[in-house]
Design brief:
heterodimer; A: 285 residues; alpha+beta; 3-methyladenine DNA Glycosylase II, Chain A, domain 3; Alpha-Beta Plaits; two-stranded antiparallel ribbon; 10 helices; 8 strands; 11% strand; elongated; B: 444 residues; alpha/beta; Rossmann fold; six-stranded mixed β-sheet; four-stranded antiparallel β-sheet; 20% strand
Chain lengths: 285, 444
C-alpha cells in the first residue's frame, strides 16, 4: 500500500516540478509573434506548392506580413482571397502577371517518328533512359505523363495525341511539372505571351522534318514576319524576346510550314482535343 | 579440392554461351558507311579534327580528347568524311557523330609502325600514349583507360586485376579473345603491371571457360608475380567491386574506387588493346563482338570495326528472324535495348543479342510480397525492395540514406523478383533524378 503511495507521490512531484518549469519558461522565454501571421496563413490556400518562391504558406505569410512580398505573389489564391488578405493587412494586393506552364513540343502520336515501342515502368523518366523511349527525336515529349502525375492542382491531362494539356485556369505556375519533365520541355510563361515555340529540336530542314512533322525546321519565316527584333533564330530554333522587339502578333506564325510556332490564346493543343469532353484520359494509357 | 573463390550474394542466370563459345573470331568485312559518335566513352565527347570532305586513312586520328576524362577517336576505315552531324546513338538519342564513307578501292591496310617500348616512357607519357590510342574499358562501361593509370601523388597500386569473368549470359567475345590471343592478354597485363609497379597480377576467369584458363596458364607460365585464378560461375562477378571481393575478399568502401584499396581492374580486351598499341601501333579501331540470341540466324564472334552499323553486322550474320522483338547491345542483364538498328557498334559494345517474344516479354507485375530474394541477390548488400518502393513514390532524397548511389545497376534484383517488379529500372530512374538534382544544385 505504501509503495503505491510513494509511486503516486513521485509521479505527482515530477509533474509539479516540470509543470512549474514550463510555466516559468512561458513567462520568461516567450517569443512574441505577430498574430497576423496566423491570420494570413488561414487566408492562404494552404497548398504549400512553392509557386511564390517560399518553402510553404506559413513562410509566405511571414513575408507578406513583413511587407517583403505583395499578397499577389500567391498564384493559387482567388482574386477574392487576395483581396481579403490585402484588406486585412491594409496593403495593396499588388500586380501579378498570370503565368502558366507551357509545353515546348507539339510532336506526339502520329507526328513524331517512333522507332520502337517502349515497354516497362510507365514513366517518362524511365523511358528517357531506355533508348530514349523509342522516340526518334531526342528532345520531344515521351507522352508517359510524368508531368500530369506531378501536378497537384489537377491542371494537366493527356490528350489523344499523348501530349500534356495545361488547363490555364487551374495552373498556378508552381513549377512541379517543370521539374518532373526529364526532357525539360516545360516552362512557366506569362499567359499574355502568346507566341509559343512548340519544338526543342536543334535540327534544320530535312533532318528536322524527317523525325517529326511538327518540328521546327529552322526556316526562319517567323523571324522574318514578326516585328523587327522580336524573334531571333538561335541554334536552329526561334527565340521570342518580348523585351527586345515590337508587339507580338499572330502573323509571325502564318507561314510556319510545320506549325512549330503557334499563337496560343488559352490552352495549347486544342486542335487535338477529342470531340467529346468524355474523351479526356489521364496518364496510364 | 577447395571450393572456387567468389563474392557474396549474386545470381545464377542460365549461361546460354554454348551457341558461340566454340566459334573462332572471324573478321567482319568492310561496309559502305561508318558512324563514329563523338561520345562513345564516359566523360567529355571527343573534339573532331577532320571536316566533311576530308580524306582519312584507317587508324588516323579523327577526333581528339576534350579534357582529361575523354579520349581519342580514330578512323576505322580509309575513306572520306561525309558529315559531322547528329546521328542515332545506341543510347537512343541523336548525338554528334563523324560519318565516314569507306573507300571501295582501298586495301584497308591496318595502321602500323615500329613497336614502342613502354619501359622507355617516363611518367605522364605512358598515360598520354593510352589516351592517344583511344583506349577505353571494353567490358561495357567504356571508361577511358588512361585515367586509371594516372595515379594521384603518393598513391601505390599493389595489385592489377585482369577481368576475364564475362559473367553476362550469351557473351563470349572475351572468352574467345582469351583462347585465341592469350599471349597478348598477358603481354598487355605485363605492360600495365610494369607501369603500375604492382607486386602481383591476377587474371580472374570464371570456371565455365576451362579452355581460356588453360590457354592463359600456358601464356603466364613462368612469369613471376602473375597467376590465373579460376572463379565460381556467378553474376555479376565481372563488376569490378565484385571481382575484387571474389579474388581478395576486400570490400571497396562506399563511394570509393578500387584504387583506394590499391587495385586497378581492367578487362582482358583492354589488355589486348594495350598490347596492340605498343607492339603494333594499332589504335582501338576494332573489337570483338558476340552476335547471338534466338533471333540471329548465324551466331558468331566477329572482329568488327568500331562504327559499323548494327544492321550491317546482323545482316552479315544472316539477318534477323521474323520473330525478333528486341535487339540488345551488350549483355542481356546490363545491355541497352536498341531503338534503331542504324546505330553503330561502339568501343564498349561486347555483344549484339536478338531476342524473340519469349525472351523479351516483360513479366506481369504484382505487389511486393517482401520475400527478400532481391536482398539476397544484391551483391552490394542493399535493400532493393525498399529502394524500389521509395523510387516509385518519388522519395529520391530518402534513397540516399539507403545507399542508392552504391547500386551498380547489375539487375540481379529484377532477375530475382518473383513479383516481376522492375526494381533496377526504378533505382536507375531515381539515380538519374538525384544526379540531375546534384547538377542543378552545383549550378546554383
Amino acid at each position: 500500500m505504501s509503495s503505491m503511495l510513494v509511486a503516486a507521490g513521485v509521479m505527482g512531484g515530477l509533474g509539479l516540478f516540470f509543470g512549474s518549469l514550463l510555466a516559468l519558461a512561458n513567462r520568461f522565454l516567450k517569443v512574441e509573434e505577430d498574430p497576423r501571421i496566423d491570420a494570413v496563413e488561414k487566408l492562404l490556400p494552404g497548398s504549400n506548392c512553392g509557386a511564390c518562391g517560399q518553402p510553404g504558406c506559413r513562410a509566405f505569410a511571414e513575408q507578406v506580413v513583413g511587407g517583403a512580398e505583395p499578397p499577389s505573389r500567391c498564384t493559387v489564391s482567388s482574386p477574392g482571397g487576395l483581396e481579403a488578405i490585402a484588406d486585412f493587412l491594409g496593403v495593396a494586393v499588388g500586380a501579378a502577371e498570370k503565368r502558366v506552364a507551357r509545353i515546348h513540343c507539339g510532336g506526339g502520336l502520329g507526328r513524331a517518328s517512333q522507332l520502337a515501342s517502349y515497354e516497362g515502368f510507365e514513366s517518362c523518366g524511365a523511358a528517357h533512359l531506355v533508348g530514349g523511349g523509342g522516340l526518334e527525336c531526342s528532345w520531344g515529349c515521351l507522352g508517359l505523363a510524368d508531368c500530369v502525375r506531378a501536378c497537384t492542382f489537377d491542371a494537366m491531362w493527356m490528350n489523344a495525341s499523348r501530349l500534356p494539356v495545361v488547363d490555364v485556369d487551374k495552373c498556378t505556375a508552381c513549377g512541379d511539372c517543370v521539374e518532373a519533365c526529364p526532357r525539360d520541355l516545360i516552362d512557366l510563361m506569362p499567359l499574355a505571351h502568346r507566341l509559343i515555340v512548340q519544338c526543342r529540336a536543334p535540327l534544320a530542314a530535312e533532318a528536322a522534318r524527317r523525325i517529326c512533322s511538327a518540328a521546327c525546321d529552322a526556316c526562319a519565316r517567323c523571324a522574318a514576319d514578326a516585328a523587327p527584333g522580336l524573334i531571333q533564330m538561335v541554334g536552329n530554333l526561334p527565340v521570342v524576346d518580348y523585351a527586345a522587339g515590337g508587339p507580338a502578333a499572330p502573323e509571325a506564325t502564318f507561314r510556319c510550314p510545320t506549325g512549330a510556332i503557334r499563337w496560343v490564346v488559352g490552352e495549347q493543343f486544342t486542335e487535338d482535343r477529342p470531340a467529346a469532353a468524355a474523351g479526356r484520359f489521364h496518364g496510364h494509357a | 579440392m577447395s571450393p572456387l573463390a567468389t563474392f557474396r550474394h549474386g545470381i545464377h542466370p542460365r549461361e546460354h554461351k554454348e551457341a558461340t563459345a566454340h566459334l573462332p573470331i572471324e573478321r567482319m568485312p568492310f561496309v559502305e558507311r561508318y558512324l563514329l559518335p563523338l561520345s562513345q566513352h564516359t566523360g567529355a565527347p571527343a573534339r573532331p579534327v577532320v571536316a566533311p570532305g576530308d580524306r582519312v586513312e584507317r587508324g588516323q586520328v579523327i577526333a581528339e580528347p576534350a579534357g582529361f576524362i575523354s579520349t581519342t577517336l580514330h578512323a576505322p576505315v580509309s575513306g572520306r568524311v561525309v558529315a559531322i552531324a547528329p546521328r542515332p546513338h545506341p543510347a537512343g538519342k541523336l548525338q554528334p557523330a563523324i560519318e565516314i564513307e569507306a573507300d571501295r578501292l582501298s586495301a584497308q591496310r591496318p595502321p602500323s609502325g615500329p613497336a614502342l617500348d613502354p619501359a622507355t616512357l617516363e611518367g605522364d607519357r605512358f598515360v598520354a600514349e593510352l589516351q592517344r590510342a583511344g583506349l577505353v574499358g571494353m567490358g561495357g562501361a567504356a571508361f577511358p583507360t588512361h585515367v586509371k593509370y594516372q595515379l594521384p601523388a603518393g598513391r601505390r597500386v599493389e595489385r592489377l586485376l585482369v577481368n576475364g569473368c564475362e559473367c553476362e549470359p550469351f557473351l563470349t567475345s572475351d572468352h574467345r579473345l582469351m583462347v585465341e590471343r592469350p599471349e597478348d592478354v598477358v603481354r598487355g597485363a605485363t605492360i600495365a603491371a610494369a607501369r603500375l609497379g604492382v607486386v602481383e597480377t591476377v587474371l580472374g576467369v570464371e570456371a565455365n571457360k576451362p579452355d581460356a584458363i588453360a590457354a592463359l596458364e600456358r601464356a603466364v607460365d613462368g612469369r613471376p608475380a602473375m597467376r590465373v585464378v579460376p572463379l565460381a560461375v556467378k553474376y555479376p562477378q565481372g563488376a569490378e567491386k565484385m571481382l575484387i571481393q571474389a579474388v581478395y575478399g576486400l570490400e571497396v568502401p562506399s563511394g570509393r574506387l578500387p584504387l583506394d584499396v590499391g587495385i586497378v581492374v581492367n578487362n582482358v580486351a583492354t589488355m589486348t588493346a594495350i598490347a596492340d598499341w605498343f607492339d603494333r601501333r594499332h589504335p582501338l579501331i576494332e573489337r570483338v563482338v558476340t552476335v547471338a540470341g534466338p533471333g540471329v540466324a548465324r551466331p558468331a564472334n566477329l572482329l568488327v570495326p568500331v562504327g559499323t552499323p548494327v544492321r550491317a553486322v546482323l545482316e552479315h550474320c544472316g539477318g534477323l528472324d521474323a520473330e525478333t522483338r528486341e535487339v540488345v547491345m551488350g549483355g542481356p542483364m546490363m545491355g541497352m535495348p536498341l531503338a534503331s538498328l542504324d546505330v553503330p557498334v561502339l568501343k564498349g559494345t561486347s555483344g549484339l543479342l536478338a531476342f524473340t517474344e519469349a525472351e523479351a516479354r516483360l513479366p506481369a507485375e504484382y505487389t511486393c510480397i517482401k520475400c527478400g530474394r532481391c536482398v539476397e541477390a544484391c551483391p552490394q548488400f542493399l535493400n532493393p525492395s525498399r529502394l524500389a518502393r521509395l523510387a516509385r513514390g518519388g522519395r529520391f532524397e530518402e534513397m540516399v540514406g539507403y545507399h542508392a548511389l552504391d547500386c551498380v545497376e547489375c539487375g540481379s534484383c529484377s532477375f530475382a523478383c518473383p513479383s516481376g517488379i522492375p526494381v533496377v529500372q526504378l533505382i536507375r530512374v531515381a539515380k538519374a533524378e538525384l544526379r540531375k538534382a546534384a547538377a542543378g544544385a552545383a549550378k546554383r
